[in-house]
Design brief:
Layout: H1 5-12, H2 18-35, H3 41-49, E1 53-54, E2 91-95, H4 104-116, E3 122-124, E4 130-135, H5 140-149, E5 166-167, H6 182-192, E6 207-210, E7 225-234, E8 237-246, E9 258-264, H7 269-283, H8 294-301, H9 303-316, H10 322-331, H11 350-359, E10 360-362, E11 368-373, E12 379-380, H12 382-395, E13 400-402, E14 408-414, H13 418-427, E15 442-443, H14 457-470, H15 477-480, E16 484-487, E17 501-510, E18 513-522, H16 527-530, E19 535-541, H17 545-559, H18 566-573, H19 575-586, H20 620-644, H21 648-667, H22 678-690, H23 703-714, H24 721-750
Parallel strand pairs: 5-6, 6-7, 15-16, 16-17
Antiparallel strand pairs: 1-2, 2-4, 3-4, 3-12, 7-8, 8-9, 10-11, 11-14, 13-14, 17-18, 18-19
Helix pairs in contact: 1-5, 2-3, 2-5, 4-12, 6-10, 7-9, 8-9, 17-19, 20-21, 20-24, 21-22, 21-24, 22-23, 23-24
Length: 755
């Protein structure tokens, strides 16, 4: 067991903010009540989530590379096997890293916690948080107290709350920014943390800040609310404010944020966000969690009505002096350098020069640079965290921030110190180059630890990083500047929608086996704060994805026009030509001839979908169903081509038809003579599969079935560009769910019958 509660209070109580300490005490009590059966499991789940304690996939302590995690000494003994509740099994602790970043003491605390409580790895997420895995629930109060003593909270890191408020990690030092958004982001963080108006949401609420519109560092377009620094001239004076956007989000069906206000005065930032939180809490969906994000409320109300409701709410808000005082306080906190600026000495090894090219960027303050420390897959060891702490103390005033690309940045490094800093980073194995380039592949945890993971995102990302790094010397510069992002499922935690090449995990059936696949998404835009979202083009066996990347990058390098972006090149090439180029990679090889295709990246075990088992299938109905599902995918692709050609009406009609075909394929497992008209298909699907819960939906509430019903309701309305685009997203998700349902039904049919 770790150090007792009372000892920690005596050692650290004076350093822990009183309200944080009280929160942790309450949580510790709730853990005990849960163990005694005096606290409802559903209530406890939201309680722990709001404190960052999250359940994780538990696969006998095995990482994606097949190695075992160290056998940690949990209070209940060795790692437990078999079905477990959250209180029995190790979980994940998410740790909020706000806009102000981390100091040396906090880095050292993270090192200690990863070493003592976790598996020896700290992980940086795509929302600039830290996560520790294989944490036992009994250890979380002590862990939280140690974090709190160093100035870090886990409160509202998960759950139906305001999540970590993120911002461009270069804010305040970027030459392209309108102004430094850091003080405003810090003020909003403090204002909303635990705010009573933010405790009754149906789902999470994610804000973000960016100092400019053109770069991706803040990704405001993918957030519930986003504030972009802008300036405008009034009476010959420059006035600073924010372009304020709302309703963005990725997830299964992504939405681009819409402009709420072109220019918002800084003093209106906090009260307007508070008003939005109140409207969201009051009118946002509560029963159907699948539509409980702010983006759906805005879609249902319309932007103008939403604006009207928020402005009315703003008028009746009781005055709060913190609206301005918090900002004023934060504006007084200014980062300063530790060492005098200078110029980087001439020369240096080729290795150093290559690293400096990709991992440093000039600050707007002369003589200083920001150094990016590349963390492959976002992972860092305790010893590396301690090395980072030492370097932060030695070269800066401890100015370290996390990034959305799962890296760390050290700000205010004097250019004259770069060679020495590089050597110290190299000694700690932290001097890998390629930050923000194609080698710097981003991935969510996927099947390593996430319960929703379908394919190994980290395994694939690691393989892509390895292969691309080996080819670095011969990759075209335009190719090196591309972004690859991988998610283990459709939820886009790896942000695959805004990558040049995005991939998300799915499964497909092959005879008596299942095989890991990835959907290939192209056309996303990383720049302009996540300026556009890619669409799925084809599902490819996981083991063929590196070849997909090789072909796409090779063709882009060979055929692109001068100055042409990957998005423009892909649009010019077209979906038909792109899919034709990848056609041979779609084929599923026979299990006996290519058994390696039936294992996921880095995992020698035969691939399964944990929740539905390995299952086998046989019989004519299986081949008939597969045929129909293939027809649905064909219709979906045709819908994409129509969308690309600008015929959004026919694209929407064909996308709806593809959903009907997939639904009909499943219905025919029970009723071969189902009519082919939409009303009959939907009615039979609802009665035979949805109401009986035979249609397998990874989310409680029948999210994907509801997509079909809503598409039918809207099928007589004219389609426009946005509605057709959303329907394309939903159609692919429904078809993937139909495949999963078929796998489950086949597994159940093949299971031994009880005598």
């Amino acid at each position: 067991m770790k150090t007792s509660h009372d000892l920690w209070k005596s050692l650290l109580g004076k350093k822990i903010p009183a309200d944080w300490g009280r929160e942790i005490d309450i949580f510790e009590t709730e853990i005990q009540l849960r163990k005694q059966g005096k606290l409802d499991e559903k209530l406890f789940a939201e309680t722990r989530l709001r404190r960052g304690a999250y359940g994780q996939r538990y696969d006998n302590g095995q990482r994606h590379d097949g190695t075992k995690v160290q056998q940690l000494k949990f209070p209940s003994g060795e790692l437990t096997k078999g079905p477990m509740t959250f209180c029995d099994a190790p979980g994940m602790q998410r740790i909020k890293i706000p806009i102000w970043g981390m100091n040396a003491e906090q880095l050292e605390t993270m090192a200690e916690l990863a070493e003592e409580y976790s598996d020896g790895i700290a992980h940086v997420t795509t929302r600039q948080d830290f996560q520790l895995h294989f944490i036992h629930i009994d250890d979380t109060p002590a862990l939280m107290r140690r974090l709190a003593a160093s100035g870090i909270t886990t409160r509202e890191a998960c759950g139906n709350s305001v999540r970590n408020i993120t911002a461009c990690p270069y804010a305040g030092v970027c030459p392209d920014e309108a102004f430094d958004v850091s003080p405003y982001g810090r003020a909003l963080t403090k204002f909303l943390l635990g705010h009573p108006d933010c405790q009754d949401f149906g789902r999470k609420f994610k804000p973000a800040f960016s100092g400019c519109k053109q770069h991706a560092c803040g990704l405001t377009n993918i957030h519930d609310v986003g504030a972009i620094a802008v300036g405008k001239e009034e009476n010959g004076q420059l006035r600073l404010g924010f372009e304020y956007v709302v309703g963005g989000g990725l997830g299964a069906v992504p939405f681009q944020a819409k402009t709420f206000e072109i220019f918002m005065a800084p003093e209106e930032l906090l009260p307007t966000t508070q008003a939005i939180a109140r409207v969201f809490a009051r009118l946002g969906e509560k029963k159907n969690r699948n539509r409980a994000r702010l983006k759906f409320l805005i879609k249902d109300l319309g932007l103008e009505k939403f604006q009207e409701l928020v402005r009315e709410e703003r008028k009746i808000l009781p005055y709060d002096p913190r609206w301005t005082s918090l900002i004023e306080d934060e504006l007084r906190n200014e980062e300063k350098p530790l060492r005098a600026g200078g110029e980087c000495p001439a020369g240096g090894s080729e290795e150093f020069q290559a690293w400096a090219k990709t991992n440093t960027r000039d600050q707007k303050q002369a003589g200083y640079t920001v150094v990016t420390v590349t963390l492959p897959l976002g992972d860092i060891t305790p010893d590396q965290l301690r090395a980072m702490a030492d370097l932060a103390r030695k070269y800066t005033h401890e100015t370290v921030r996390t990034t959305v690309e799962q890296n760390l940045v050290i700000r205010w490094v004097s250019k004259k110190d770069l060679p020495a800093l590089y050597q110290e980073l190299k000694a700690a194995d932290l001097a890998q180059g390629g930050a923000g380039h194609i080698f710097d592949v981003v991935a969510c945890p996927g099947t390593d630890t996430c319960k929703l993971g379908i394919s190994s995102s980290r395994g694939l990302a690691g393989e892509l990083r390895k292969r691309l790094s080996e080819q670095a010397f011969r990759l075209d510069q335009a190719v090196q500047n591309l972004h690859i992002k991988v998610s283990g499922c459709f939820n886009s935690c790896g942000q695959h929608h805004v990558a040049d090449m995005g991939f998300y995990g799915i499964s497909r059936k092959a005879g008596n086996y299942t095989m890991p696949h990835f959907q290939v998404l192209l056309g996303g835009q990383w720049e302009n704060n996540g300026g556009s979202y890619g669409l799925p083009i084809v599902a490819i066996p996981s083991k063929n994805i590196p070849t997909v990347v090789e072909r796409l990058t090779g063709r882009f390098a060979a055929e692109r026009e001068k100055g042409e972006s990957f998005q423009d090149f892909y649009r010019r090439l077209g979906k038909v030509a792109t899919k034709t180029m990848l056609e041979d990679l779609i084929k599923i090889p026979d299990h006996d001839s290519k058994p390696e295709y039936y294992s996921d990246w880095g995992d020698p075990r035969e691939y399964t979908i944990g929740d539905i088992g390995t299952g086998e299938c046989a019989g004519e109905v299986v081949s008939l169903t597969e045929f129909e599902l293939a027809a649905a995918e064909r219709e979906y692709f045709e819908a994409q081509v129509l969308y690309e050609q600008g015929d959004v009406q026919k694209s929407g009609e064909r996308a709806f038809r593809s959903m009907l075909t997939a639904a009909r394929a499943l219905v025919k497992t029970e009723f071969l003579d189902v009519p082919n008209d939409a009303d009959s298909i939907v009615a039979e699907f609802r009665a035979r599969l949805y109401d009986t819960q035979k249609f397998w939906d990874p989310f409680a509430g029948g999210k994907f079935g509801q997509m079909l019903f809503l598409a039918q309701e809207k099928s007589q309305d004219p389609y426009h560009a946005e509605s057709a685009h959303h329907l394309l997203e939903e159609a692919q998700l429904f078809i993937d769910a139909a495949h999963s349902s078929y796998n489950k039904m086949a597994a159940q049919a093949a299971a031994p019958k009880a005598s």
